[in-house]
Amino acid sequence: MAKVALVTGVSRYLGGLYARRLSAEPGIERILGVDVVPPRHSIGRAEFVRADIRNPMIGRIMNQAQVDTVVHMNVIATPKDTGGRVAQKEINVIGTMQLLAACQKASTVERLVVKSSAAVYGSSPRDPAMFAEDMNAKSTPRTGFGKDSIEVEGYVRGFSRRRPDVEITMLRLANVVGPQIRTAVTDYFGLALIPVPLGYDARMQFLHEDDAVAALVTATTGPSVGIVNVAGEGFLTLLQCLAIVRRPVLPVPLMTAGVIGNIVKRSGLADFSPDQVAFLAFGRGLDTTRMHKVLSFEPRYTTRAAFESFARGLRPVVPGVEEVGDAVSGAVSGAVSGAESGAAAVARVFERLYP
């Protein structure tokens, strides 16, 4: 049972929510919340410590506080939240390396809990219907958050070999949605006009923000369980999701999705990376048997209920966007044929919509 916990990333929404929930656990004597900027939200009874996990000072904090449990929440999924892809990778990869180096030297550390992601499985047409924890990606993510998550997990496995006495739990969370959290997926489904890969209807699983935090608290206070997939029960297809959010849709040939994605990304409205495009086309399924039997965790929200909770918090669609969709039908037809002019026409429409 954890007594003194150090939590990274408490100034981010999910990290702050986790700190507040952990504060309600009577067995936790002290909680240190670490981040580079002070949180704007409540972090419960956690003590905020302004520190960068990329700095060796984090090791001194662990030793002085006699930390026995480290919860790593500061693996960032969206580059626009950090000032760009370079900063995101440095925080995710270099930050994790330095944090684990500090954990290795801290003799008091007995447990490490890591918020990982189902993005480690990637998305490809060769994927199995369900990924179990012992399966590897059929097409390994080569860029972005998915690649970072694979590297983070690799460093954690290396740490476990150097410190076999430390209990380790890694939760591979499905895409987290909810009424408050902002992620690449929620930004995408909140667009006024949503580009979708033409001819694809990917299966998706979601995890409600409350369930994500509850699972992490269970991993912190319960027995160590290794690697576990965490997702809400059931699936939604991409078209079902679009029907729930009630947004106008622009079907886009997969070959032009990257062009459209770059325009949307430059607008600052959503992160539209190559791995995000692949997820929208091919989806991903998680086997949650270990979540039920080993972690002993039951999400309150199904995949559909989690997504509907998110959709209820969306602002109404911008008036007139339906007409924009009608205006680009000819451009889509040209792009379907593979003509460069069609793809360029679609791109021009999005440049006008998202200047």
Describe what this molecule looks like in 3D.
The chain has helices at residues 13-23, 57-65, 85-105, 144-162, 184-189, 209-221, 238-245, 254-267, 274-282, 289-293, 303-312, 321-327, 329-336, 340-353; strands at residues 4-8, 30-35, 47-50, 69-72, 111-117, 167-173, 175-177, 194-197, 203-204, 206-208, 226-230, 236-237, 249-252. It is of the alpha/beta class. The chain has two domains: 4-179 and 205-233 and 284-300, Rossmann fold (3-Layer(aba) Sandwich), CATH 3.40.50; 248-275 and 318-353, no CATH class. The strands form four sheets. The protein has a seven-stranded parallel β-sheet, sandwiched between helices. The chain has a two-stranded parallel sheet with strand order 7-10. The longest helix has 21 residues, at 85-105. The radius of gyration is 21 Å and the shape is globular.
Number of continuous helical runs: 14
**Which architecture of the largest domain does the CATH hierarchy give at level 2?**
3-Layer(aba) Sandwich
CATH H-level superfamily title of the largest domain? NAD(P)-binding Rossmann-like Domain
Helix content: 40-55%
Mean pLDDT: 86
N-C termini distance? 52 Å
CATH topology of the largest domain: Rossmann fold
Strand content: 15-25%
Tally the beta strands.
13
Number of domains: 2
- Encode the helix/strand succession as letters: EHEEHEHEHEEHEEEHEEHEHHHHHHH
The Cα radius of gyration reads: 21 Å
Q: What's the shape?
A: globular
Domain NAD-dependent epimerase/dehydratase: 5-230
Protein name: NAD-dependent epimerase/dehydratase
Pfam families: Epimerase (PF01370)
